[in-house]
Amino acid sequence: MKTLTEASEVVPLRHPGRWVAAAVIAVLVAMLVHLLAYDPKFDWGVVGHYLFSTTILEGLRLTLELTAVSMVVGIVLGTLLAVGKLSPNPIVKTVCWAYTWCFRSSPVIVQLLFWYYLAAVLPRVGLGIPFGKVFISGSTNTLITTFIAAILGLGLNQAAYTSEIVRGGILSVDNGQREAAHALGMTRSQTMRRIVLPQAMRIIIPPIGNEVMAMLKMTALVLVIALPDLLTSAQIIYEQNLLQVPLLIVASIWYFVITIVLTPMQYGLERHYSRGAKAQRQNTMWRPTWLSWGNSAEQSILTAEAPRS
Amino acid sequence: MTSHDAGTKLTQGFETYPMVQAIGVRKRFGRHEVLRGVDFSHERGRVLCIIGPSGSGKSTLLRTINHLEKVDAGQIRVDGQLIGYRDKDGKLYERREKEIARRRSEIGMVFQNFNLFHHMTVLENLIETPMMVLGRPREDALERAEVLLERVGLSDKGGAYPRELSGGQQQRVAISRALAMDPKLLLFDEPTSALDPELVGEVLDVMQDLAAGGMTMIVVTHEIGFAREVGDWLVFMDQGLFVEEGRPRELLAAPAQGRTKEFLSKVL
Questions:
Q1: Which of A302, B63, B209, B214 is deepest in the core (most CB within 10 A)?
Q2: How many angstroms separate the CA atoms of A260 and A233, rounded?
Q3: What are the residues of chain A with a beta carbon less than 8 Å away from any beta carbon of chain B?
Q4: DSSP symbol at A30
Q5: How far apart are CA A277 and CA A32, in angstroms?
Q6: Residue A175: strand, helix, or coil
């Protein structure tokens, strides 16, 4: 029997399975690259030619505009809805819940078409006394352009989803924070703006980042209302020259590039809003997985700092 | 109703009514009645300590004083005024949120879990409400904050975030944050219960200094030593009622009620 002696060297656990998996994946990737590079169906010359063509770049600009404006509408309205759902005012509460239910219960594509064809139901819209005199009015078609219809379709729907993300974030903030603020004489709205929302941001940002990426690609749905976004522009071109695959690759490359640009932005925002949340800072944030290759799972648990009491 | 004007310090000012006056305070959570008719009055410049087993309603009572909990029956007046209501023609009208907030800003509260704002530095914690609620200029608020931090021995921690501090330091900051509003009354809800034993002393020292400086305080605590040394009046609460009260030394040395004896034998 062995006796307990001096401290001995620790031999880390080996993970041979990881190396086998890596080898298999490497072979598969090599096959894919080979296919992409040498198969004549992927006409890279055509891809290069259209990547910076005016039509595609115009489409890209529209996609970015739609994404940005819809997300702003979604986040601003979504935050208001979230606060409304947590409000003690029963009317506000009911309206906000009804909104969420209403917009989450139909496909976005239906909502887009609905706003687009609104003029068919309401040819004129105006301001005035309900059931009475109308002061100003205009044709629905001039008021709701295709772009506005797209923003309404995407943004209003997004607000319904964002409101739940924001509500989750607000609920994640410890109730003691609210109580302390109230005890110090802050009103509910001051508490929400200065104390609760800034702390909720840390929880809200990762899913909102997801939503931005999803929105970037959801804008492709404006195809149904004939708005020339990135995908529609590619489609317009390939309907003439029948080079479908290269042009879909062109569109994909741009979606890919935007996603790459957006990811570090999310990282930066997350870092900003996690100030003071020291205990969580090191673990929960996005970082490239290859950085943790050598580390075993046990180690990353050990580096997590427990909050001090 | 009990008045305890036989304390060691002279009553400050010429006000005729007590700082806090509670009559028949009742509060229930669902079926459970947490406060079952509490009466007391608390003079200016005095320290009232409330002890009792958990679930006795002492924290709830404290939270009714600044209207964090609404009472179901009875009245609480702070400095002669109701916090959540306006009385007119024998009826109580609920106040608007803004008015309640303004009255609350005159009552400081220190919590068991400190509840410092985690996303703000220590200094930001101290200047936030004086600027937001009292409308003080930033420079004035900062100046006052630095004086307060100096007083609790944390002038070097102004730039730190609360979670970078020990529990004792956080609680000292929390007390400073309450003081930054120049409250006329300070409520302490088990201020040392979440602290490691070796950190309790530093917080009690700060509280003792405040008491010596004439601050009116109501302290819910398990620190019998503090109650004896610093308190002017001691209340033992159980099952939503004041079971027994008196001068701390006398009450602790010779409790009259069986429940008080039983409780004290467990904690002493």
A1: B63
A2: 22
A3: 174, 176-177, 179-188, 190, 194-195, 198-199, 273, 275-279, 307-309
A4: H
A5: 43
A6: helix
